[in-house]
Amino acid sequence: MKTTTMAGFHGLLNLSLSSSSVSIHKPKSFFYEKKLSLIKEEVEGPHFIRMEKLKQCWSSLLVLAVVVIGTGAVPITYLQSAVAKGAVCLDGSAPAYHFDKGFGSGVNNWIVHMEGGGWCTDVASCSARKNTMKGSSKFMNKDFGFSGILGGKQNTNPDFYNWNRIKVRYCDGSSFTGNVEAVNPANKLFFRGARVWRAVIDDLMAKGMKNAQNAILSGCSAGALAAILHCDTFRAILPPTARVKCVSDAGYFIHGTDISGGSYIQTYYSKVVALHGSAKSLPVSCTSKMKPELCFFPQNVVPSMRTPLFVINAAFDSWQIKNVLAPTAVDKRKEWKNCKLDLKKCTAAQLKTVQGFRDQMMRALSPVHSTPSRGLFLDSCHAHCQGGSAASWSGAKGPQVANSKISQAVGNWFYGRSAFQKIDCPSPICNPTCPAISTDE
């Protein structure tokens, strides 16, 4: 557990300001707010407060602050300098990230992890995000507990615990690909995801990433797709002597066939690309060969990628079962409503269709498992984003494939200790290590 002095504690309650960013260092918790409330009530109340009692209150508050700090809560940094460059969230607010500095042997190692959160396809759906953390940094939590691949404890994240670890908040709705200059005065929406990504990377370079010896660009869900789409650019920005690789956790969205026989997800992605002006931000190696919306599918981007990539995915990805295989728009009679939320509630016919989805996933992953430098951890869980918690990343009860935990597979692959391209057993109920769904961004 980290400790701090009283002077250090007072510093935590202040804003750390610079011309480029603002970091909020105020530790937050229920107990923290409650203690402040009690102190406020006593100070403003009609009764005289003895100095000793006030000292006791502050001492208790200090202890609580130390506990909060020890849990790994990382303060937010608002990148105010990006606003002038037009690199902003959907509502025009500054982009943000959480940065836990590296130490010891990890001081020159960096992992930049991009948050997930789906996409918005039209003015209505993007406007709905403006008053949430998915469209505005004004509504983001001021601190964030790091765990899983971003965890700061050696026993749960042995290969990356002391790296510089960054979580980039997601507020653009385009997997960090949007780049539209014009802003409609009626809706005042900014489609600037690609600018946000570059502004954050440039800021991190100035803060020391330019000296990186090892670096990973990773993400969850829509952020994991961004990790794939920006992977080669990330590699090109960093020193040529650095070891740079990318990790996609639940970002391998397939160009799949849905229950109607069509491809609703292609139509969906075409709307994202058109609205956000994403075409010019997607890999040219892909857009030079096919329609831009098809380059939102990793299976069309990965074949021409030059930077090593590790894919963590569930063969029965819960988000994709709901939105690629059986989207509500094509499930007119809601026959899949229960099945897609809980595979144990599927009929025999539906299970056969779900199994067919796994077959589609296997074919789409061929560019990954056909290349030795790439890694693959494909379990048969009904899950989405499995690397974000200590329990699923490295826990004793976390998912395993070929007797390996996700953390072991990724760590061994990154450092070249051993290759890892493993595919789980074929049934959605065959792996007893599969946990219950905990997140579905």
Automatic annotation (TrEMBL):
The entry lists its GO molecular-function terms as: hydrolase activity
Which terms are listed as keywords in the entry? Cell wall, Cell wall biogenesis/degradation, Hydrolase, Membrane, Secreted, Transmembrane, Transmembrane helix
Q: What is its main location?
A: secreted
Looking at the UniProt entry, the stretches that span the membrane are: 57-79
What is an annotated GO biological process for this record, any one? cell wall organization
Question: What is the top EC class of this enzyme, as a single word?
Answer: hydrolase
Write down the EC number. 3.1.1.-
Compartment list: Secreted, Cell wall
InterPro entries linked: PAE/NOTUM
Q: What does this protein do?
A: Hydrolyzes acetyl esters in homogalacturonan regions of pectin. In type I primary cell wall, galacturonic acid residues of pectin can be acetylated at the O-2 and O-3 positions. Decreasing the degree of acetylation of pectin gels in vitro alters their physical properties.
Similarity comment: family membership: Belongs to the pectinacetylesterase family.
Q: What is this protein called?
A: Pectin acetylesterase
**Species this protein is from:** Brassica napus
Give the taxonomic lineage as stored in the record. Eukaryota, Viridiplantae, Streptophyta, Embryophyta, Tracheophyta
